[in-house]
Amino acid sequence: MKILVITQTIDKSDSLLGFVHGWIAEFAKQCSQVTAIGLGVGTHELPENVHVLSLGKEEGRSRILYALRFLVFVVSKRKDYDAVFVHMNPEYVLLGGGLWRLMGKKVGLWYAHGHASLMLRVANRMTDLVFTSTTGGFTIPSSKRRVVGQGIDCRRFSFVARKLCTIFSVLTVARISPVKDIETLIKAFAGLPSGSVLDIVGAPAVPKDEQYLEGLKTLAEQLGIGERVNFLGAVPNAALQPIYARADLFVNTSRTGSFDKTVGEAMATGLPVLTSNPAFKEVLQDHAADLIFAPGDANGLLNRMQAVLAKSISERQALGLELRAIIEEQHSLATLPDRILSHYSLQAKGQKIGTPVDLDPPPL
């Protein structure tokens, strides 16, 4: 198969979307040719069968020129792809969907977020398939939905055998934004013993969130824990492994309602995790009752952090091994392309839209 991949950023050093670089590389292993279009393109090292194209964000082009260049690529490269995979940007489905239908191209949209906009609803009507990581990642009732798991690079995020240290290290990795509800984590962390630290990795993605960041720093100072809370800023996805490796606990307070990939990355390294995200009820399986707390519940989070702190190092490691096994079996990047491409193949053989929804990822 030859596939067209469309995404926001193709840049392995990007702190938010650097993981997409790895996804494209994995597609290249399964496809004879990959044409990858990014709104912006930065540093990349991809196989020879990947052709990278930019819509020009790094050059400061206007939105009108983005759209025109996109349509030119869609038509001029039409012989270089059989199917289309759009990552998290339904507007590209609206822009190119009519042309793809005329050209007979199968179109798949990856979407993993709890919010369902009007644009997404329209895009759902124009696609052949919608891929998502969990059932909560695409909430529009649709026979096109295929739950294929999240693509976590288990080779990059390898298991770490941690040692018991005098300092208990709590970590979160998230975009600095109100939807991530980091204030709940800071309030809960204030109840932990003085021999503990909190590392917050991430940065505001838009200027309006700078004020939110300053508010978090002020909150930490007001709670008397300013010296124990470290704001580390943005870190490229490729550089996160050692940060996960030195932590004892990962906490996710996001309210997006979808699979946050940083939780999966932490699990892959064998790091115990706590989350308020309901999407992880199906991911954490038997551990959900112990590792999920109510959104905004600082006391509930504190109780669960204290429970992890009270565990022996062998108990934490046993939990970590079980969490990594979940990621390897259900959400590994190594198997994601097969899971996605198999559905295109079924459609190419004449399977009609409207077949039963796969509520679980296909068996490995």
List the helices and strands and how they pair.
Blueprint: E1 2-10, H1 19-30, E2 33-41, E3 50-54, H2 63-76, E4 83-87, H3 90-103, E5 106-110, H4 118-126, E6 129-132, E7 145-147, E8 168-173, H5 182-189, E9 196-201, H6 210-222, E10 229-233, H7 241-245, E11 249-252, H8 261-268, E12 273-275, H9 281-284, H10 288-291, H11 298-310, H12 313-330, H13 336-348
Parallel strand pairs: 1-2, 1-4, 2-3, 4-5, 5-6, 6-7, 8-9, 8-11, 9-10, 11-12
Helix pairs in contact: 1-13, 2-3, 3-4, 5-11, 8-12
What this model shows, in words?
This protein has 13 helices and twelve strands. The model is unreliable at 351-364 (pLDDT under 50). It has a seven-stranded parallel β-sheet with strand order 3-2-1-4-5-6-7, sandwiched between helices. A five-stranded parallel β-sheet has the order 10-9-8-11-12, with helices on both faces. The protein has two domains: 2-151 and 333-348, Rossmann fold (3-Layer(aba) Sandwich), CATH 3.40.50.2000; 168-330, Rossmann fold (3-Layer(aba) Sandwich). The two termini are 20 Å apart. 37% of the residues lie in helices and 18% in strands. It has 364 residues and is an alpha/beta fold.
